[in-house]
Design the sequence.
DNA sequence: TCCCCATATCGATGAATGTCTATGTTGACG
DNA sequence: CGTCAACATAGACATTCATCGATATGGGGA
């Protein structure tokens, strides 16, 4: 179709629209606010383990019951998953009794680009 | 005895030695502790701006006076730079009156690898 | 030597955060 | 229905943290 001409690269970047690579220029206050929220979400050991559990799960998704063994109580797990969701890193979907979490598409690439640049 | 014979390659990687890509497997508690500390350091807007200011500075380094304009007091800037240093993200060196900060080598690549994998 | 500038440290304080127990909600299954 | 399992929410509590003003440190120049 006609709009197939738009650069797909731009659409990809729009999912995590924020900010040039950290090596390009000093971030503005707004950019820093938004981006720091993502790093902050990964800045807790329990959350980082939960995130890596989801990110490494077969099929790209995991139900809470499969990743809850991180040494804290069930409500705490739920609380951390909520934080990761609010930060835009995870998405969740209920299917029957279970709730499945998956990594929000392009988050990994987007954050990676912040650190290492477009290359 | 002579355990000084450890491989230098390992020492190099030891700068950011931690952890496979987040998509590979669930991190151990220890790995998560260490890695989360890095993300946490970037999880504050002021610190993130300071870090990007240093990372994007010409010559790869910046004196504090060049990056202090982030909207907080001078002691607060100093405090955040210390945190970034403790997290292993920045290094500092005094030259005359000024103190210069630079990004610790391999930090950007190391953290990028965590997110996007070796590719 | 004395002052000034750049940066670090100290101590205090209010806000944010991680954790828990208790309880609510939602769907599956007799 | 009633009950159970999976998950979320609410409230409380202790700890951590970001920030500030005051002060210390340390080098350069007059």
Sequence:
């Amino acid at each position: 179709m006609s709009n197939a001409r738009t650069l797909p690269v731009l659409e990809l970047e729009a999912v995590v629209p924020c900010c040039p690579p950290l090596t390009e220029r000093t971030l503005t206050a707004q950019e820093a606010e938004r981006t720091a929220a993502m790093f902050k979400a990964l800045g807790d050991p329990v959350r980082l383990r939960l995130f890596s559990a989801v990110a490494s799960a077969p099929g790209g998704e995991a139900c809470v019951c499969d990743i809850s063994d991180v040494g804290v109580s069930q409500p705490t797990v739920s609380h951390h998953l909520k934080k990761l969701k609010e930060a835009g890193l995870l998405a969740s979907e209920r299917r029957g009794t279970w709730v499945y979490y998956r990594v929000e598409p392009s988050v990994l690439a987007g954050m990676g680009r912040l650190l290492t640049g477009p290359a």
Observations:
- Confidence is low (pLDDT under 50) at residues 1-14 of chain A.
- The two ends of chain A are 29 Å apart (CA to CA).
- Strands of chain A lie at 61-63, 90-95, 98-103.
- DSSP finds six helices and three strands in chain A.
